[in-house]
Amino acid sequence: MRARVLDKILSFFEGPWARLLMFPALAFMGIFILFPLVWSVYLSFTNYRLTGPEAVNYTFVGLKNYLKLFKDSEFLDAIRNSFVFTFLSALVGQTVLGLGLALVARMKEPEGVLGKVLKILKIVTITVVFISWVIPEVVAGYAWISLTETGGFFSTLFMGPAKSFKFEHPMETIIIANIWRGTAFSMILFIAALESIPSYIYEAAEIDGATPWQRFRYVILPLLSGAILVDLILITIWTFGLFTLVYIILGVPFRTMHWTIYVYYKGIDRYNVSLASAASNIMFLIVLALIVSYLVLMRKLRRWG
Amino acid sequence: MGKLGVIAAIAFLVAVLSYFLIPLLWMIFAAFDPNAGPELKIPTNPSLVNFEKLAEPIGAAVPYTWILNSLIIASASATLATVLALLAAYVMTRHSFRGQEALTTMFVSFRLIPVIVIALPIMVLYKGWGLNNTLQGVILAHTALILPFAILILDGYLRGIPTTYEEAAMIDGCSKLGAFLRITLPLALPGLVTVWLISFVFSWGEYVIPRLIIATETLTPAAVGLDYFKGLHGQIDYGRIAAFSILYTLPVVAIFMYIKKYLQRGVAGLVSR
User: Fold this and answer.
1) Does A52 reside within a domain?
2) In a shared domain, residues A154 and A81
3) Which residue, among A45, A138, A277, would best test binding to B if mutated, counting the most B CBs under 10 Å from its CB?
4) Is residue A293 one of the residues assigned to a domain?
5) Which residue of A48, A103, A118, A125 to mutate against B (max B Cβ within 10 Å)?
6) Disulfide check for A190: which of A102, A197, B31, B252 has CB 3.0–4.6 Å away?
7) What is the ipTM of this complex?
8) Nearest residue to A239 via CA among A281, A278, A283
9) Residue A291 CB coordination number (10 Å)
10) Domain limits for position A166
11) Which class for A141: exposed (0-12), middle (13-18), buried (19 or more C-beta within 10 A)?
């Protein structure tokens, strides 16, 4: 009897009313994602500050914040460095290392001791790379601080005992740390992509006498091109918008190393939220362009597949 | 592949392994070393002193309470996000309506927005909404940030469960939603657990939102709490930071080892979906 009453109530959510069940989720995203984005655009055209008189009585100032930004050499440096950081740590580092690991992971182990060593090393390395990806970003940040601080392992190795690697080479530090942090994603993606290639294709190439390099260059690489493109776009988006890791390791003194630290510095440390919003909006446009290219690419891949 | 190739592969793996192992080794060594510093060394007289010192207050709060705060925030956001995502995914997979494709596209885009871009205006808005410096504020923002991803995963999962059983139940007099709840939901339980765990891990590790919203030591979650081990003049309490990092990391590693298989499939789906 009770079940029937329940079903009567539930049957209300059939037909057009079913869409009502989506409302809570959409409302959440509308209030806490979409509206803040719009608000950020609005704030960037005002002189709003976190404290002082402009926190209460702020007015419309037009493009003033944007014009100010393009005259600020710190902001321009931050943009340039963000591109360098993204290019070296995401495109060069993570993609190449991830692909290398994926290729080694699917190598056949020969008989004997050497094969056993290879097998164990494979499992251990993949697990450790995976762990470095899943631990909290803050924890990764503090581990890398210690290694690159004066007396830390990397500092002693490259600079001697009296100097700090992080202080002398801030860009190299966040690049090394971010490759460490992010490579697992590319590795997993490429392992999955390699598994989806049927094995007879490799075997055919092997029988035809292709060298390992030829097999990689003319068989594997073309078949992986879709996966590589997806990987490149995704990790570019993530690296370009990265805040936590770079902020933990470098902090506001190195605000010209990444635009996200610059935004934090202007908005939180200098209370100038309107200027920070303007900076954040400019950079978000670049991220948006990348997101659109990802969506277009996914659509194309689906059509091919 | 010749013997030379195998040796080259082993050399490559050893190099990569040492690069990836060193930061983790430092963390483990330093946590059990009463005289821990930035240098990498095996503790000469290992002890649990660093863990015991986590019970001593920093400012107004004991570090252990930060873990508790993270537990509250992460389980509340994960639960809220999973329930709301299930409702949304039900509509997306069991009903067809106009604009479905556009909605999916929107969710994919939302997932890729850098958090700092949203966190800054949220901080300003929260001042007016009275959510600044509250756990609820963090929970609500985290729920919204998790939702796009949670819906996409559940959408994929529910599409994999055939609707024939539901249709049979409907012929026997069940309502459409009733059939879904009674028949498909139990089948989708592993998917729901996975979504909950992934959401939990996201919220557990997320730093930007609480960093901008929470100002009181007693309300701080573990992600931001680590910053308090840094002294006023930049000197860092390495031993306690390492000990706290280990406690803070263990649940996440346990969860990921549990859902590893699923995750690999999920990443594969990014290419083929």
Assistant:
1) no
2) yes
3) A138
4) yes
5) A125
6) A102
7) 0.92
8) A283
9) 21
10) 69-304
11) buried
